[in-house]
Specification:
single chain; alpha/beta; DNA polymerase, domain 1; 2 domains; disordered C terminus; binds S-adenosyl-L-homocysteine; binds iron/sulfur cluster
């Protein structure tokens, strides 16, 4: 028995063909499930009784289970979802004007070990299957009972999406399929810490790229993001140029501001130099504190100065508003396993 939500349309066609089923059967199922929200096969009225009975034996409809849903005072909604092998991941819905962005996880934990990130403390526990990524979307969409719809998807939750690139790109294909959810590719952003050899896959998938720059010299970046020792800044920025050339799209550079580490005005000037010639915007994220990190968030005055220098130097730059801090849903605060095992939290 296979899980329906783990199939792209093509894969489902191939799977069903093994049992002598025509191509259009997969399309019918996609429409029923993703467009009409029907997973009870007996309700799929345009399918023959014989086919319906057969599907019961071939496919199951398994989604991650929503274990907890927390609403923040600022409108952010965080989900804790149970995935296979009793692990949990988090997804966050973030309203912003007429946008409603879903931040999804790609892995349980993360192997990259960035020093400022809470998820890193868990290490990598498991890469998510495609259906567990699609499932985060379906569950979050289902929770909206007031007519709102998710307008954007960002892979900025737990995990490094390019460390799980096969399943992430398959999930994107499923989300985008016109016979199904038909989510626009240009409204999907994959954020990476800089796994250089996989960046072309983001271009191939037709989605947007965000890169966690977070430092302006190899020395600082080596120190806070160990991935930089493998793929240093010049290689990362070359891959970004390649992406921009191939897609004609803008890149978002995320930059977590760590007091006294990467927030000097010289850093701001270096950001401009490094990103020269790359169509891009900068997203400043004042560090979200968590126990035992050893890093400090700069004062808002300092953040404002950093931002205005960048603007003066001609960069398009936004400071990411901190959302959902009261429910531990802000960037770098996702920590699902820790919640179940508070004794693991090192509080200094
Ligand atoms: N692994 C991917 C995507 C998930 S992290 C990546 O690293 O890009 C999403 C964003 O949160 C990244 O830009 C990361 O730099 C940022 N981040 C991590 N920990 C943070 C913290 N404690 N405060 C603010 N931003 C943080
Ligand atoms: Fe992983 Fe991204 Fe956190 Fe780094 S910042 S440890 S890549 S989730």
């Amino acid at each position: 028995m296979k899980n329906f939500y783990d199939f792209t349309l093509k894969e489902l066609q191939i799977y069903l063909a093994q049992f002598g089923k025509e191509k259009f059967r997969a399309e019918q199922l996609f429409r029923w499930v993703y467009q009409k929200g029907e997973t009870d096969v007996s309700e799929m009225s345009n399918l023959s009784k014989g086919f319906r009975d057969e599907i019961e034996g071939l496919l199951e409809f398994n989604l991650p289970r929503v274990q907890q849903q927390l609403d923040s005072l600022d409108g952010t909604r965080k989900f804790l979802m149970e995935v296979e092998s009793e692990k949990t991941v988090e997804s966050v819905l973030i309203p912003n004007g007429d946008r409603l962005t879903l931040c999804v996880s790609s892995e349980v934990g993360c192997a990259m070990g960035c020093r400022f990130c809470f998820t890193a403390k868990m290490g990598l526990m498991r890469r998510l299957h495609a259906y567990e990524i699609v499932g985060q979307f379906i569950n979050a969409a289902k929770s909206l009972d007031d007519g709102r719809r998710i307008t954007n998807i960002v892979f900025m939750g737990m995990g490094e999406p390019l460390d799980n690139v096969e399943n992430v790109t398959r999930a994107i294909e499923i989300l985008h399929d016109q016979r199904g959810i038909a989510f626009a590719l240009r409204k999907i952003t994959v954020s990476t810490s800089g796994i250089v050899p996989q960046i072309h896959r983001v271009a191939q998938a037709g989605v947007r790229l965000a890169v966690s720059l977070n430092a302006t010299t190899d020395e600082i970046r080596d120190n806070v993001m160990s991935i930089n020792r493998k793929y240093p800044l010049n290689e990362l920025l070359d891959a970004c140029k390649e992406y921009a050339k191939e897609t004609g799209e803008m890149i978002t550079f995320e930059y977590v501001l760590l007091k006294g580490v990467n927030d000097s005005l010289d850093d701001a000037r270096r950001i401009v130099k490094l990103t020269k010639g790359i169509p891009s915007k900068i997203n400043l994220i004042p560090f979200n504190e968590h126990p035992g990190s050893g890093f400090v968030r700069p004062a808002s005055q300092e953040v404002a100065e950093f931002q205005s220098l960048l603007m003066k130097l001609g960069k398009h730059v936004l400071v990411r508003r901190t959302m959902g801090r009261d429910i531990y849903a802000a960037c770098g605060q996702l920590r699902s396993e820790m919640e179940k095992h508070p004794e693991k939290m090192a509080i200094h």
